[in-house]
Amino acid sequence: MTKTLLVTGAGGVGKTTIAAALGVKAARSGLRTLVVTVDPARRLATALGVDNLGNEPQPHPAERNLWAAMLDATASWRAVAIRHAEPEVAARLADNEFFRAASEHFPASQSYAAADQAVTYVQARVWDLVVVDTPPSAGGIEFFEAPAQMADLVGGRLLRWITGGPLPGRFLFNTAGRPVLRIADSILGSDLLVRVAEFLLDLRTTYDGVSRRGREIDATLRAASLLVVTTSDPAPVREAIRFFRDLPGVASAPRAVIFNRILPIEWAGAVAPPGTPAHLAMNLTRWAAETVRQRDTRSAFSSRYGARIGTIPWSLRPPTDIDGLARLLGDQADLPWAELGIPGVE
Amino acid sequence: MIDKRLIIVSGKGGVGKSALSAALALLAQRRGLRVLAMELGSPGGLSSHFATGPLEFQPREVRPGLHAMRMVRSDALLEYMAIQLGVRGIIRFGPVARAFDVLATTAPGIREIVTIGKAIWEVRADRWDVVIADAPPTGQIGSYLRAPQTVRELVPSGKVRAEADLMREALRDPSHTGLALVTIPEELPTTESKETLGWISDRDLVSKPTIIANRILNELAPGDAGSELVAATAELHRSLWAEQQEWLEALPPDIKIPYLFGVFTPGEVAAHLTDVLEDVL
Question: pTM for the full model?
Fold first, then answer.
């Protein structure tokens, strides 16, 4: 059975590189491993030392057991919905102005497409482990809420209200009997409501297919292990906290957190010896203060959320080949490897 | 910068948007302006920097002359209908409000125009000298700035369309609206900021943004380190500094904010930034 490891966290914390490193570690422990990213910055390709990655998983040229894929970041749930529509409806939807615009603006759009594609790989049963670098987004949690949001939009709760009840099929939108809609129509100065309703009707025909797929995606996400990546900066830590605090209701609770860009702990509280030039002594004091801040952040996190914590030292250049990636993680003895789906690591 | 009527502060997540929004508001307040600070992004971002409790839709005075509020879409929607569209009498009928809620969820641009419209309307109401909006991150700010245009494309006539036209002009007028783009000299924020600058100028949505680079390291003069620890911290600092120079060259900022080392409360951070801004603005 294919296991799934989701690597989440705020953007810019080194998530993609760490997902790649986890992939290498898993591959070297004998698991057939696929690493998937939607990172538009091509960080995964760079980290793995390969030229190009596409939607189709490619075997790594130098590493047995390792595959990688980069999902199309412009794909949207529009494509998913169209896939579940009758051909005639699909053609109408493809042209629909609301659908076009909504798929650009709907917050979960990219997350949904990414989740859908990642689940396709999990279902292919080709790999032992699929490591998913979740899309960078304002709230990473939306990745996990996307299936439900999608089904809700398509499901027609809005539709039932706007059209005033259960619907036989395509209908005649009549504002005459509904003064409320007439007012709305006059304010909007057009037949906007009619067009919205027609769009929602078309969308609703895809409901069965989309919600079935949504449940599959949801089930895979819930069964997956979750690893949160953060730095010690306040914003990414806030995001990491959200995963530990809010996620258990939506998906499985995170298993562990990796703090990236960690300063050597022996810097904490360090004082320069007498005779050190003042500006260098001041510099040491400043970085010592940063080290204390980082240490306090980690201990607050572990005592508050009971999280298992891994740390990765601050390196000035991210790895650009497989061996660099393998070294990046070190042994991380504190991480619950078996729970993360990577057993057999010594 | 603070001579504009509306300052929209955006940037990639985690670069310090809220802290800088708060600092801009505090600076304007220090200079005796009547200020409204609006929390449009994640809740608590702005209020924590004012060292005050959660904000509400109704503006609250958090310092003498400085009010702060939080954007609540359903409240703004009702207000938008009542005041901007003049349908005051009927908003008590739930169905109308719900009809708009449906539209706000489905029709693109409506949700965003309600938010951006609230900011512009507060400027027009003339109760404030300057309105400062702690806006959503760069990934989402486009749909807000584009909202008037999106709505114009969907709605050919009527009050909503007329409002959208006014908003578009207000956003493009450099004496009315300024966009402050906060960034840090690292790869991802720099790339994202440059992309944002690209489409802003291509689409002529708002006048040229002010770029504020946060967390700038000082240049460390050479010297005899003496101990290993001193040498190690100096080496890290110099490497990070050198890397920052590359990104600063790729995107030269208008304002540089020094790196703040150590442990500070959000309130202390905002006060410190206000002092820094006081010298450059």
Answer: 0.83
Number of residues written out for chain B: 281
d(CA A206, CA A84): 5
A284 in B contact zone (CB under 8 Å): yes
> Long-range pairs for A334-338 at CB < 8 Å and ≥24 separation?
A334/A308, A334/A309, A334/A310, A335/A256, A335/A258, A335/A308, A335/A310, A336/A255, A336/A256, A336/A308
The shortest CB-CB distance from A184 to any of B99, B136, B221 is to B99
Query: How confident is the model over B112-141, as pLDDT tens digits?
Result: 888 898 999 999 998 999 999 999 888 788
B105 interfaces chain A, CB cutoff of 8 Å = yes
In sequence order, the β-bridge partners of residue B255 are: B212
Given an 8 Å threshold on Cβ–Cβ distance, is B159 in contact with A272? no
pLDDT on residue A208? 80
Contacts of B107 in chain A (CB under 8 A): 98, 101-102, 192, 196
For residue A263, which residues of chain B lie inside 8 Å, CB to CB? 236
The answer to whether the beta carbons of residues A16 and A44 sit under 8 Å apart is: yes
Q: Which of A230, A265, A287 to mutate to test the interface with B (most CBs of B within 10 A)?
A: A287
CA distance A62 to A18: 19
Which two tokens mark B90?
């009927």
Nearest to A11 among B12, B87, B102 (CB): B12
Q: Tokens 């894929």 map to which residue? A: A69
- CB atoms under 10 Å from CB of B255, counted, come to 18
Q: What is residue B132's predicted lDDT score, i.e. its pLDDT?
A: 97
The number of CA neighbours under 13 Å toward the Cβ of A75 is 22
ipTM of model = 0.84
Query: Which chain B residues touch A189 with a CB distance below 8 Å?
Result: 155-161
The residue of chain A with its CA nearest to that of B218 is A283
**Distance between CA A18 and CA A312 in Å, rounded?**
9
How far is the C-alpha of A23 from the C-alpha of A28, rounded, in Å?
A: 9
d(CA B9, CA B141): 10
Q: Are B39 and B55 in contact (CB under 8 A)?
A: yes
Q: Would you give the DSSP letter of residue B34?
A: -
Least Cα distance to B133 among B26, B13, B41 occurs for: B41
Q: Which residue of A has its CA nearest to B242?
A: A316
Instruction: Give the whole-angstrom CA distance, residue B214 versus residue B260.
Output: 9
Cα-Cα-Cα-Cα torsion A12, A17, A18, A20, nearest 10 degrees, comes to: 150
pLDDT tens per residue across span A319-339: 888 988 988 988 788 888 888
pLDDT beyond 50 at A171 = no
The residues, any chain, with a CB within 8 Å of residue B43's CB and separated by 6 or more, are B54, B55, B70
